[in-house]
Structures are given as structure tokens and as C-alpha cells.
Write a structure and sequence with these properties.
By secondary structure, the chain is α/β, with parallel strands linked by helices. It contains 11 helices and 16 strands. The strands form 3 sheets. Strands 8-7-9-10-11-15-16 form a 7-stranded mixed β-sheet. InterPro entries: BCAA_transport, Leu-bd, Peripla_BP_I.
Length: about 375
Amino acid sequence: MVVLAAILAGCSDMISDDTLKTQAPSVQIQPKKIKPQPKIKKQTGQKVALLLPLSGKEATLGQAMKNAAELSLFENADDHLELLVKDTKNTPEGAVVAAQAALDQGAQLILGPVFAQEVRAVLPYAQMRNVPVISFSSDRSVAGRGNYIMGFSPQEQIKRVVSFAKSKGIDRLVVLVPSTPYGLLVTSCLKELSEAGETTIVTAVTYTGGGEKLVDELKRINTLSFNGVLLPVGGENLKILLANMQAFGFDFSKVQLLGTGLWDTAETQEIPLLVGAWYASVEPLQRLPFEAHFRESYGTLPARIATLAYDSVYLAAALSKNNPSRPFQKEMLTQPEGFKGIDGLFRLKSQGETERSLAILEITPQGTHVISPAENHF
């Protein structure tokens, strides 16, 4: 396994891996406490493109991811790697222009874009040059054809938390699902799990906004027999939903609350009604030093998915060091042993998805506590 151990959302059975069994040498890379330089390009033969929304409505996110990539480059890369940062302008058209510019400069690997519509636009151009893409999307519909989606899979998280809950006797679930694309993914996943006998869905209710119109449904739910409530929503929407549930007379004391990696933020974990709740996500210990270093360097905490930029640059740096002649060939990217980043153990699958080793965390008054650790190998 290549160890990236610095600081570094269908639930069907795990996809079979038909990749070559290439065993790469182990690399241990320690973080250096340095502040990154303004220039994030290094002169070398290995060129990697980084496509981010550095302008447009998601510019703040794009800048945070650029900063994370900058940290990763300066802590882990050497002169084997040159990072070509390009602005997608948060549009498919901008992403195409950015990708073409990077490819014309000799990019051998593309990291990004963030959003699925931009990924779709970029893929044909990368395919024409036979250049692999590691995008930051979690949308399965863009996986494959040379694109590996690195975003956090909601299906994996749902499967993990539902499986753990069942092992603890929490097997009759009420689900309140937001009327969003994310909610549709969750609904599909839960249907598969229920049909496979992994849990019983007592009722699933789709709602809009913060659940302001759920009063009649909650009255009905209170008459049912269940022992768990899955709430696949995070941030301010979760806070509003919980407040409405409480105002409508929902009894939280008799059930186990369950969630996904959308809860993996300080804002969500500070909601009093979530104390004792469980959710599936990557283990946080590796991420904490990264967040501290990021804040020290840039004066703010990173966006949650900034770690994807860090880990992807880390992966590229490690592969370019271990196999400088052919670092980004499919057998290297999809080695079955995987990689260990600041978001834990992960591997790129030959079909284009990313498999992650997830933990179960419990929210306590003092923060989160791991109650079921992530596996340390695949």
C-alpha cells in the first residue's frame, strides 16, 4: 500500500475489482511545518492539472481547495511534479477551456473538476488524449470512461450506518428524506437495503425546506413502532428540521438518531438534540492536524471537501515518486491495496468509483467519538 499518512457521500455489494495486483513500495511522508509559497508550480517532467471554480459562485470553495492542494504539494511533492492550476469559472464551458489549456501544456493527469456537469464536459477531451481524470464529484453517473470520482459516496455512508445500527438492534427505521437529488440517492439506497433484508423501513417521508409542513406526518409517525430515525441532511437545514420535529411533539428519547457524513461539521455536531446520535464518515484524527495547519497558513478553516484536493495531490505526488516513468497508468491508480490519506483509507476502483473505509462516530457534548473504527485494510 502506498501510505499517504501525513496530516492527511447503490448500496449493492461492493463492486468487484479486476485491476492488476500491482504492489507498490510503501512510502511514509511526514508533514513539514512550513507556510506555502505564493507560487505552487514546480519545474519537472510530471504535469498534473487541477481544475477548480476559482471564480463564479463557488469561488470560495475553489480557493479553499486550491489552498489545500498547495499545502499538499509543498509538504509532499518534489521536482517530479508540476501542478497546473486552471479556473473552470464554475461552468461546463469554462471547465472545457481549462482542461484544453492544461492538456495543451502536457498534463498527464487531471484532478477535478468539482461538479458533475463540469466533469461531463471535460471527459471527452481527456479521453481524446488518453489522460485519466480524478474528479471531486460524488455523482456515480459520471464515473468510468477514465474518470474516477473521489467525492464522498452517500450510498457507502448509508450502508455503513444502517449495518452498524442493525448490529446494535436498531433495525426498524423511520426516514425523513429531503426532496433533493441527495435525498433521491438515499431513498434508492435504502430500498436496496430493505429488499436485501438489511433493515426494515417502517416509513419514509419526503419533505421540502426544513420540514415546516411535517406536523401531520410526525403525528402519524408517533403512532408507529420503530427504534431508529435516519436524517440524511446536514447544516442549517438539519437544525431547522430538528427544531420543527421538537415543536411538533416528536419524542427523541425513545429512538436512535442516525446520519451521514453531512454531519461531519462542527456546526452540526454542536446541535444539542444530536448528542448520542450516530453517523458514518471517515475517521477525523488524521484530518485535525491538516485543519490546524490550514488555519495557521490561511487564517480560516478549510471547506470540508478541501481534503479531496489535498489527498488527490498527495496521491499524484506519491505515484510520481514511485514510478516516474508511468505514474498515472490505470494499474497504478487502481492498485487494490489503496492509499491512506487524511480522509483515511481509500482506493480507486477500475469502474471509476472510490471505495472508502468508514467509521461510525457518536456525537457527545465534548465532540465526536469513534465507536466503530474504520478498517485499516481492504
